[in-house]
Amino acid sequence: MDSKSLFAKAQTLMPGGVNSPLRACKYVHAEPVFIQNARGAHLFDVDGREYVDYVFSWGPQLLGHQDPAVSEAAHKAIDLGSSYGAPCFGEIALAEKITELIPSMEMMRMVSSGTEATMSALRLARGYTGRKKFVKFIGNYHGHADAFLAAAGSAAATVPGTPGVPEEVTSHTLLAQYNDLDAVKAHFETDGEDIACVIVEPVAGNMGLVLPKDGFLQGLRDLCTQYGALLIFDEVITGFRVSPGGAQQRFDITPDLTTLGKIIGGGFPVGCYGGKREIMEHMAPVGTVFQAGTLSGNPVAMAAGLATLNRLADCDYDALEARTKALTDGLAEIMAEKGKPVTVNRIASAFTMYFSNKPVTNMIESGQADGETFATYWQQMLAQGIYLAPAGFECAFTSFAHTDEDFEKTLEAARKVEF
Ligand code: KE4
Fold first, then answer.
1. For 209, which of 7, 136, 309, 345 could close a Cys bridge (C-beta 3.0–4.6 Å)?
2. How far is the CA of 3 from the centre of ligand 1 (A)?
């Protein structure tokens, strides 16, 4: 069956034919292609077409698809059994590796998604401080737990309100524009004694990529310290992506808790939350804040995650950042020649090219970018074998598997786009 007929069938079985809304390609007025397999920086669809990938499962595959070391580790693990529901050495091995790379995570808990990680970190912050309110940023997306679905980014930004989420739940969610430290100060001046935490994407990746302004992250750190609230870095995207030690290493800010996902599973379902030992020890069974999960610490996912982090230790982040900059500089130049000025926000191997001639530093400015022009660009790039995230409010990712030929093919395809 071809993608079109598979999609028709899928829509009779799953809402929108997908298991996550973004994949339906609604925002670019297209139908999704069904993937047969992937290798390196390439995807292959059921109709035999090949694509240069810039989605990489929305971030996890920084090494590229089917990295030999990761695949070997997963195969070895699965030959020993797929899930025990009991402690195994793989959990210790991955946790030790994470602590080595992110020292602020003295203690952690593995879960099966980024949503579980952030949901649990918020509960822990509330349980630890005894406070109910928390601050999140408009356009930041922390997964789909109820409390976070207020002004959330990513695909959540495209659905009106939060049907199914009682207002009593989001009434404790205090909002501020990203990069607006004064708004956060105002929340603390009003509710400081009842704010459990501030949760932030230290580099925003769900309103497109938006960098923290100088002083923004340090300002959040200082306010949380001053008022006894916890600072939570949601590094589900940035962890091991923006540097080997994540955004907290790159920007030299120490959060109280960190949430991880994506890359640490090497393509398998893993999330993780962790931080200071004395905070984490409030989690059951040592403490009384509850969280649990059937497949948490799954041995196959642990093995794939550890193999991924071990392989990344040998990768040259600076070289990939330089190559990604050259690619995005080239794309911006080509779009300008076509009379389509763009703003490119980029860090390490993640970027967003906004069809806008203004800086993009928050959700308001992200929303002013031209989504229809992006849809035209996306459709024509896909037709030429370039697979971009099907939404202007997402990131594009490069990988250690991309070759110079892949980047040249991408630039050539961009040159042929007609608006
Ligand atoms: P998951 O529950 O999807 O594993 O992770 C939620 C999450 C938490 N925090 C951040 C910063 C995230 O970006 C995410 C998930 N990212 C989205 C897209 N950027 C995943 C793709 C999708 O929802 O289909």
1. 345
2. 25
